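Worked example

This section walks through a single chain of length 529. The input is the sequence exactly as stored; nothing has been trimmed or padded.
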Amino acid sequence: MLQARSLSVEVGGRRTLADASFSLRAGDTVGLVGRNGVGKTSLLKVFAGEAPAAGGVVLRSDAVGYLTQDPKPRGKGAATTSLTHVLSGRGLDTAAHRLEVLRSRVDTDPTDANVAKYARAEEQFLFDGGYTGESEARRIAHGLGLPDDRLDLPITALSGGERRRVELARILFAGSELLLLDEPTNHLDTDAKQWLLKFLRSYRGALLVVSHDLQLLDKGITRVLHLGDGELTEYRGTYTQYLVSRAADEERLRRVVTQQQSEIKRLKGLADTMRGQTEKRAKTAKALDTRVARMRRDALEGPKRESGIAIRFPEPPRPGATVLRVEGLKKGYGGPPVFADVTFEVGRGERLLVMGLNGAGKTSLMRILAARTEADSGSIEIGHKVSVGYYAQEHEGIVPGRSVLSHLADQASLPSQEQRNLLGTFGLRGEIAHQDAGTLSGGEKTKLALAQLVAGRHNTLLLDEPTNNLDPPSRDAIGDALSRWPGAIVLVSHDADFVARLAPDRVLLMPEGDLDYWSDDLLDLVELA
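Given that input, the structure is written out below as tokens.
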């Protein structure tokens, strides 16, 4: 299904993989793991044929289902309904249209030739599952949390999370022999995650998945590929078993490195004691020097500690007592309103969690608050000395073709070195500063977008799913930094641990617009909403 030979991958001039070989067969379920920025997403793009390899060969099945971190629905279905787009995974949208054209032709001109064409087309449509395709597509979409009324809407009327579910449904419906899934559980609630896990366990083809969802990695895979320091290392078993094996490998490597360094030190000391003595001993010392030089050249390196991130959001300028006042907001997309009469206030330093099922208008509300779109009616008043920063879940503020540094410079007039220092606190170190921001991984884009918020010194933040694509250490570091930050936050998140760290004061339930005080009892509902 998938085979790589002597594969090398480069991202923005950085080599993220060198001379790796790997194979994936039918029935294999493999997790690709590694910290943010090591090149997992770029490797998946090469496997899918979406990006060229820097060296080596990739052989893949003709039928590949590839889910990117930020999927953009394409094809005829993207311009019509979401259901049509799902059906396009097997070409059933085109086949149904052709069948309808041939049927009309028979109605107007029932010649033997036209009847024969229609009969052949219908037989093929039946063989391809055309008459049962819609019910199957709806079943898959429903499992991923898309009810029929949302599936019948144009894709443009759906939220970012819903569009991602539509694209995932299209890929699963297509029945490809090879699935390459990059963070497939982003935007999925608990029930949808469980459905996806069950689907993937019964999948007969080959699966390679990148995910920071530990439940998926632990329960859904039987092999792990670890990507780090330009190498690809394979482990058999679940994610938990991989963690144990990886720790044991690193401990063995540390012992070998310690022994090597100890022997180098011993031989160097021995050579030093022989120098300046007899001619014979001097020759022996020189031979030992040669041996020590060779050992140093060939010495192994110990396991590198993953660089942590120590984020600090600066003290924000003090605003007035009320930072946001929202009155009677209403928003729709041509049909019934998504929400109406939404009214609330956010005070200085307050944390407001926006909750609701997918499609309840959470992202639409956030975009209106950020002045990215307009409400159909209602008003928004920004408080005295309030500066609003917006984190968009789809990284729409990150523009391909521009460097990471230039993105940061847009937000604040900081000296270049201070900009690089700020990026470093988010783990974006070294040459990444000059890299095309469009080539960053999803986790790196998230860190860049958050660094932009820091550079802007805002005192009110609108955060729409800020933990998507982040590895656990980065997620914890950013959660801790925001929990200490005294500014106001309006948050949308399915991440219960992250929400708990931020300790909301109140919750806004969408689409009703009901306000209530936060209670830890609501944490169980966060992943469902």
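What to look for: The chain has a mean pLDDT of 85.
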